[in-house]
Design brief:
Length: 433
């Protein structure tokens, strides 16, 4: 098919590139001339394992095209994907400004039947909104369908998630649209779940909110484990054997972050409020998560006392490994907490260094590697579980530090080994250590 992707951010690039790899012709359309120019030069603006290789392969096969002309791009397409950003507004709701603009442009550009796909994460009712805006801006005799097709792409393994999905959700009441979307996704050999648009929109938010709940729950359990002398690693493993619970998202840490969970939880809570339901369970999940991030800074103070003029080393800035995304990263909260109390910060991340500069460039000193982080530090905090951090020579790390205080917020190191090396070690919920 001929596919138009409007919006060349994270979701748009991954979706369009992978659809190209399935044999479709994909037009990436964006009003940002700089983005389109960079893509034409085979420059990928995000870090995602495997994406660059697939992009270049399909670029060279002529399957990927690029344009700033929305009208022409839409006119040439069979299926138009809306993949623009939906950031949270001041109230916590999803800001649909970009979606509305794109819907208007699509309406003006309709020249024949098309399936218009909401791929961006949007609140319940957005499919109806898009359909209304498209209709208001198009000729009355041109038929089209609007489909909710939420993405479930995890940063760091988004290509794998797209090519091998747990399910593909299609929200529409149109048989013609269902046939088109089923044909488009047929090469993936995935289970296709069809619902009305409202249910499809809710599935995305409900899924992310539930996973966020699991993370906040195990972090709360970890804090209880610390108080009573239990080891949360053993507790989580024991829970995970229960098929009703499962082992996934029961890894304690410094709290969830990134572009999805924080924004989507706030948007779902706001939707509930707007419809007269106080979603206090989800609000508690978000509160636990923010408390968890601040708790890490308090642990440093418990170890060192006054942190003013103390040097703190930070290993990891991205919210998770295999991505350069620092949005809502626990590192931002920890860094700000310590800086406000006068600490001097050294930091290193394998991929996210450039992104952190635009946020905290004057507040921290970025160094070339993990050992530079340790040199002269009174404490080191491991915040992102990059594989290279697990493989460091920790005897060397300790020898470089001024004081041997080490906080492992991802529980990726062996407590006994760290203590044998002479560290004063603290993990999350490892009260038995």
């Amino acid at each position: 098919m001929k596919i138009c992707i409007i919006g060349t951010g994270y979701v748009g690039l991954v979706t369009g590139t992978c659809l190209g790899d399935l044999g479709n012709e994909v037009i990436f359309c964006d009003i940002d001339v700089g983005k389109i120019s960079s893509l034409k030069e085979k420059k990928i603006p995000i870090y995602e394992p495997g994406l660059r290789e697939i992009f270049i392969r399909n670029f060279e096969r002529g399957r990927l095209l690029f344009s700033t002309d929305t009208a022409d791009s839409v006119a040439r397409a069979d299926v138009v994907f809306i993949t623009v950003g939906t950031p949270e507004d001041e109230s916590g709701a999803a800001d649909l400004s970009y979606v509305k603009v794109v819907a208007s442009e699509i309406g003006k550009s309709l020249n024949r039947y098309k399936v218009i796909v909401n791929k961006s994460t949007v609140p319940v009712g957005t499919s109806r909104l898009v359909k209304r805006i498209v209709r208001e801006n198009s000729s009355a005799d041109i038929d089209f369908d609007v489909v909710s097709n939420p993405e479930f792409l995890r940063e760091g393994c988004a290509v794998e998630d797209f090519m091998n999905p747990d399910r593909v959700v299609i929200g529409t009441g149109s048989k013609r649209a269902i046939e088109t979307m089923t044909k488009l996704y047929e090469p993936l050999k995935a289970d296709i779940f069809v619902s009305n648009p409202e249910s499809a929109e809710m599935i995305k938010y409900a899924s992310n909110a539930f996973l966020a709940t699991k993370i906040s729950f195990i972090n709360a359990i970890a804090n209880v484990c610390s108080a009573v002398g239990a080891d949360v690693e053993r507790v989580a493993k024991g829970m995970g054997f229960d098929k009703r619970i499962g082992p996934h998202f029961l890894e304690p840490g410094p709290g969830y972050g990134g572009s999805c969970f924080p924004k989507d939880c706030k948007a779902l809570a706001k939707t509930a409020d707007d419809h007269g339901y106080d979603f206090y369970l989800l609000k508690a999940v978000m509160r636990v998560n923010e408390d968890q991030k601040r708790l890490i800074g308090k642990w440093v103070e418990e170890m060192l006392g006054d942190v003013k003029d103390k040097q703190i080393g930070i290993l990891g800035l991205a919210f998770k490994p295999e991505t350069d995304d620092i949005r809502e990263s626990a590192a931002l909260t920890v860094l700000q907490y310590l800086k406000q109390r006068g600490a001097n910060i050294l930091a290193y991340d394998p991929i996210a260094m450039n992104n952190i500069k635009s946020v905290l460039n004057d507040d921290i000193r970025l160094v070339a590697n993990a050992y530079d982080v340790a040199e002269g530090s009174d404490a080191v905090i491991l915040l992102t579980h990059w594989e290279e951090f697990k493989k460091l020579e920790y005897g060397k790390v300790k020898s470089l530090m001024r004081q041997p205080f080490f906080i492992d917020t991802r529980n990726c190191l062996d407590p006994d080994e760290m203590e044998r090396l002479g560290f004063v070690y603290r993990g999350v919920g490892r009260g038995a250590c």
